[in-house]
Amino acid sequence: MKIGIDLGSRKVKFAVVENGSLIRLEACDTLGFYKQFGRLVDEELTFDLAATGMFAESELADPSIVVTGYGRNTLNYKGARVISEIRAHVAGAKFQTGLKDFTLLDLGGQDTKVAMVSNGRLADFMMNDKCAASSGRYLETMATILEVTLDELSSHWEDPVPLDSTCGIFGESELIGQILRGYPIGRLCAGVNQTLVKRVLPMLKRFPSPNLVLTGGVALDKALVKLLELGSCQPVIVPEQPQHNGAIGCAVIEFIRD
Amino acid sequence: MKRVGFTTTIPIEIIVAAGKLPVDLNNLFITGGRGGQLIEMAELEGFPRNICGWIKGIYAAALESGIKEIVAVTEGDCSNTRALMEVLSLRGITAIPFAFPGDRSPESLRLEIEKLMEHFGVGWEAVNRSRQRLERIRLKVREIDRLTWQENLVTGEENHYYQVATSDMNGNIDGFEAELDEFLDKIRIRKPLRDRLRLAYIGVPPIIEGLYPFLESKGARVVFNETQRQFSMPYGISDLVEQYRSYTYPYDIFTRLADIAIELEKRRVDAVVHYVQSFCFRQIEDMVIRQTLRLPVLTLEGDKPASVDARTGIRIESFLEMVEENS
Fold it and tell me: Mutating which of A70, A72, A73 best tests the B interface, going by the most B Cβ atoms within 10 A?
């Protein structure tokens, strides 16, 4: 039994794989997971997976665990193999799409990753560095200000109101200004989605490929996908489980060949 | 001995010939162990947050050191230095401008050098004597660099330190030479280092601490420090004007790239780390570097003095993993 774990900034994602086939997926909030089930033993991070109630006894009998995520280079994970996020996401995207040549855009809670995969191998990549304004957290913050759900936010792409702040926090006051100008909520939601697309397009431009694969929680935002297709002038491929892509990549890393 | 500060490498042979002590304000700022505090000091005085950390660090370090005279490089480095000169002059520091001519013309550079000589009241004979004195030290540093890439006896950080220190000879010429002799004796009996990957570090020296040991803990050693090597002037040229024309750092990116290309080949480098300072014009040059170099390039950005943060760590690890898998 292979268990892949992606320790994301907002959610911890799990993928269970047996004989190269995906059995099931799980997820829970990161903070709660660390607080309830995580502890340090001899400077190594351990999780009490049995206590989570998410796994059957047989799944945890002799599991092969592969972990990725934000904390990976500051902590060791006891009894598990730790791999880089880029590697996990590329493996997940290869497994989920069956493609060998593609540009992967992963938009997570804090991270933006762009990876170019040629002939099954990672050829180059970029990650956001000093700023997380092009990540899922931006969408969450803006949805809160607009008092809409993420579902509502992700249903508007037409006629976006321009929002130009470089900084996600200044973006809040800019958005409030636009609300006062009386723009309809739909156009403001579209503006928020468009802003994120504009921030990632320069990164995508660095790695042109006929196949653009979008993963991460943000891939669930259908309006953003539409705007990304318009902005990049190409179809966007969203795998079946975009949010669990990293966890799936961890679980299948041994089966994935170049 | 009276100290003369400077904002980036200048012909220190002139300052030495004038019987004064050259002090690289960058080194003063970064080696004091209080880099973060110095930047805060400058910001409290009104320096914007979105201005290069080195400029702020130099400002505060110059004031704190009590140095009364500095040479400011107004052409060949960033334009922030001009404003830095102005604010330092308000605080009673005399700033002498020095320009590396953009076209690398020997006539213009000679004029600049002679202007500086005139300011410090020295002639060519004295300057050439100090050039010979410093060349002896430069040769030893060159040997440390050779032992780094050819014999694998020197770590990336040691290579960085000894080369970067040549910008002002650590403010103590004889003491620095003794330190070099001691180090050379020590390393010759070392066992060669074994690395899985050989890296080049290009761009300005890092404001990030612990970068080289971090890379080495991942099996990758820097065998070429581009700018630091330039500071050491490893050209073996006996004409001072030509020496500072060969120095690539203050000139255009293509001059730098020509030097980089030769060294990457010679030193059998696997991948390149391009360090850029936040808010620096050299971030734009990253585009040219990526388009020109054939090796994988990881661009790292640093703002203030701090150790390698988790995010930078993740990016480095992923990059090295990719290079190793593809090689």
Answer: A73
